[in-house]
Amino acid sequence: MGYDPFMSSVSQGLQSSQYNPYAEEHNPLAGAGASYYGAQNTYSTPSQPLQYHLYYPLAPIRDTLQPYQRAVFDLFLPESLREDLQKKAEAARQVLASQPGVQSPSLQHYHSLVPLDIKLKNTPGIFGLPTWVWKATSRKNGNIYCLRRVEGFRLTNEDAIKAVNSWKKISHPNIVTTVEAFTTRDFNDSSLIFVHSYHPLSKTLAEHHFPVTTNRFSRPGPVPEKVLWSYLVQLSSALRVIHKAKLAARCIDISKVILTDKNRIKLSACSIFDVINFDAHRRVEELQQEDFFNLGKLVLSIGTNTSPRNMQDLRTLLEQLGRNYSEELKERVAWLLSAPQQQYMTADQLIRDLALHVDDVFVSSSNAYDEAVNHLGRELENGRLVRLLAKLGTINERPEFDGDPNWSETEHRYMLKLFRDYVFHQVDTQGNPVLDLGHIISCLNKLDAGTEEKIYLTSRDHQSTFLVTYRELKKQVQSAFGDLQKGNTKQQQQTSRGF
Questions:
Q1: Would you say 184 and 132 are in contact if contact means Cβ atoms under 8 Å apart?
Q2: 35 annotated to bind ligand
Q3: How many domains does the chain fold into?
Q4: pTM for the full predicted model
């Protein structure tokens, strides 16, 4: 096992017992079974149980609801989508557990480094050198990035690292964005660092389709053919953009393609070969043909459930692919694996041949887009109500204005205070609090719309009563909040943002 002083210092900051609520196997050193870009490999134990199901429908859904009636969870995002988004946010925020005397590692303007892939020894990968993957936060903009360290690489040509500039211009939904690259000696050696965009809770296709399991009798079922066509279409689209920019991907490998969502993949680790093999001086056309070969090999590996290191007899594997899938898929993979006879293969030609399956991917993406817009429509109302609640919260009972005749809770400000009690502080005949979310949301929606409906407001001592419409209350909210924005004679003017 190779000794890395930087990794040894990080290991001192790891807790002796870790528990990860996301991991399928609750073992922090799961090795190849750990997620590549995910949160399984971070080590900060949550300080409290993660509350994902705030609006989860605990009771069975009632079928007797009237058309105008809604359950609580109908007003918010679906619980599965909410949980997924919260898990990704939690993964992005996780940091190494702090230990006395152990300083958090940093690289230039990147801090809070967290290892994403845990390897017990420095084994070279497809790049020929040991690599490590980290999650880090930038001091420049506060965004989170993925850092890939190529260990022991000595840069002999300054022009090599400039090759990354061409990749920084490429923006594609199926390519992980390249941010920058630089060299460092913070690891007590000569290392090369590549910075890419970070996608939490992602995993490589190798981890997804070839999971490490202790049950030798378990064998995963065949991958649906639509999934293979989707992979082929997405990677072909990525190659079309890369080849159009006079570049070659050179990293189409099952361990370098990440799955970020359901059947949504991205090509990662781009630009690394262009730097470390800068002096090889190979023609771009030859490298582009290798991309097609590697693409066919990737689909063949997943379709036949064969690890890439065991793919010696491609002809036999093609016959096996033909027995489980359509003849069209077999011919397309065979075309990718075949050497060009008279002219080079092109990504445009491949996209034209995949036109029917491109339409399937387009329909699937459009359906996912429509579903996301539908969910956002629910949250749109919630955003409006939050802004309204923020205004009411800033107006009611400000302690710094006690005794100020310019801000006494009389007239419209007093009615807003009574409206607050009407919405949030209602009680029943026994004096018990009434917790009715439907009443709260209904009142706030009517206030935001400014309807002509009248409500009866009374003070807590029942000495003052008002009959007022929501339209009048809305005008009072705008007037009182406008006074706050203008400031008064005793307070400096305060600026408001986002209201």
A1: no
A2: no
A3: 3
A4: 0.74
